[in-house]
Amino acid sequence: MAQPPELAPTPLLTDHHSGVPSRLTKEAAEARARLYGNRTQPASIPRKHGVRLPPDHTQESFDTAIKELKSTIGDANVEISDKALIDGWYLEHPNTHDAFHIVEQEELVSSAVVFPGSTEEVQTVVRWANKHTLPVYPISIGRNVGYGGAAPRVPGGVVIDLGRRMNKVLNIDGDNASCVVEPGVTYFALYEEIQRRNLPLWIDCPDLGGGSVLGNAIDRGNLWVGRPGVDEV
Q1: Which CATH number is 113's domain given?
Q2: 126 to each of 73, 122, 134, 146, how far by Cα in Å?
Q3: Shared-domain flag, residues 147 and 87
Q4: Of the candidates 161, 184, 202, which is a domain's last residue?
Q5: pLDDT at 35
Q6: pLDDT over 50 (residue 180)
Q7: Domain containing 215: what range?
């Protein structure tokens, strides 16, 4: 039996793309304890309904579409949102709904979550969604918790989780203080890679550390990769 979220080991960056560096295990555990200590609602409420179907879809048409996608990108990369909805916490947040929902868990919930592993598979998913008129909601990590997290704006939409399988640091240019990353690369991961390469760079990070570098940039957030003593202002 799985441990309750408040007792489970802290996800580490060495094991999971959205985890924390091992040196921050204690701080993460303390933050989780404070969160669960202040919780006034259960982390999960029994579901009243099955899969929240996308608009204008029957169970039959939805099943047909899902079967087609699984045959294209693999069964393991398509998950139906029919399981218990667990709010979790910052490091173990849901990719199906809003962890800090102000309405019921099942209101802004996805019908399915898909995990493309390449640009080509992203294109495949988008073409599939257009063919079957399915609303999609792409996320990188899904930790924009102040704005609904990973919850699709259209109830029953399909979440495209770009982080689980696309989380590589493709390049870091020390001379230009720039980087090329996939959506699942967090600030933690980028910092660790900079340190591993022993590059004279620093990150001016407005995030808590576990957010997506690319996702924050697309949301017009701030990221500065600079050279100490050179680019400091």
Answers
A1: 3.30.43.10
A2: 12, 6, 9, 27
A3: yes
A4: 161
A5: 85
A6: yes
A7: 169-226
Q: Write the pLDDT tens digit of every residue in 144-174.
A: 877 889 999 999 999 999 999 999 999 999 8
Q: Is residue 98 part of a domain?
A: yes
Virtual torsion, Cα 93, 95, 148, 88, nearest 10 deg: -20
When pLDDT is averaged across residues 197-203 and rounded to a whole number, the result is 89
Q: Are residues 139 and 181 in the same domain?
A: no
Helix, strand, or coil (residue 68): helix
Q: How many domains does the chain have?
A: 2
Beta-carbon contacts of 173 under 8 Å, excluding residues fewer than 6 positions away, are 179
Q: Are residues 155 and 178 located together in one domain of the fold?
A: no
Contacts of 188 (CB under 8 A, 6+ apart): 13, 19, 20, 21, 209, 210
Residue 219: how many other CB atoms lie within 10 Å: 12
Question: How far from 207 is each of 104, 133, 224, CA to CA, in Å?
Answer: 27, 35, 12
pTM listed for this prediction: 0.89
Residue 115 predicted with pLDDT over 50: yes
